[in-house]
Amino acid sequence: MKFILDNWAFILLALASGGMLLWPVIAGSAAGGIPAHEAVQLINREKAVVVDVCSAQEFATGHIVGARNIPLTSLEAELPGAVKNKQQPLILVCQSGARSSRAVSQARKLGFEKVYSLAGGLKAWGAANLPLEKT
């Protein structure tokens, strides 16, 4: 207890810096992440384009039917050529949702307006018993 009282400023500084490091992760996963059932509605009603940002090897093991594969490392270079209409909804997908959350900001920088990350990624898609295909 004496240690905490003597070093309260350092402890407070450590907690604040930890919170600042975690904030982008928390804010990024909450912003734009949509559950699988909402993604299906966007695909069916608004003709959303699904882009899988996984590697080609991961894409071959299983992906959403009709998805296009553009790895995260080449997203900025290839996305404008693959998806011409920037007003059309864009759903970014990866295995767990982490890479696609990062890809949302890249797509927005390129001018895409309606960009979403599939919350939980392909794991959530499969858990909802939605179809996957292999190439």
Short description:
With 135 residues, the protein is an alpha/beta fold. The chain contains seven helices and seven strands, in the order ααβαβαββαβαβαβ.
Task: Provide a descriptive summary of the structure in words.
The chain is an alpha/beta fold and 135 residues long. The chain is built from 7 helices and 7 strands, in the order ααβαβαββαβαβαβ. It has a 5-stranded parallel β-sheet. Strands 3-7 form a two-stranded antiparallel ribbon. The longest helix has 23 residues, at 8-30. It is elongated and about 60 Å long.
The largest β sheet comes out as:
5 strands, parallel
Strand order in the largest sheet = 1-6-5-2-4
Spans where pLDDT lies below 50 across 5 or more residues: none
* Rg for CA atoms: 19 Å
The averaged pLDDT comes out at 90
List the helices and strands in order. Answer: HHEHEHEEHEHEHE
Overall outline: elongated
* Number of discrete helical segments: 7
Portion in strands: 5-15%
Helicity, in percent? 40-55%
Gap between N and C termini, in Å? 60 Å
Helices and strands: which structural class? alpha/beta
Number of E-state strands: 7
Write the topology of this structure.
Layout: H1 2-6, H2 8-30, E1 33-34, H3 36-46, E2 49-52, H4 56-61, E3 63-64, E4 68-69, H5 75-82, E5 90-93, H6 98-109, E6 115-118, H7 121-127, E7 132-133
Parallel strand pairs: 1-6, 2-4, 2-5, 5-6
Antiparallel strand pairs: 3-7
Key descriptive features of the protein:
single chain; 135 residues; 5-stranded parallel sheet; two-stranded antiparallel ribbon; 7 strands; 53% helix; elongated
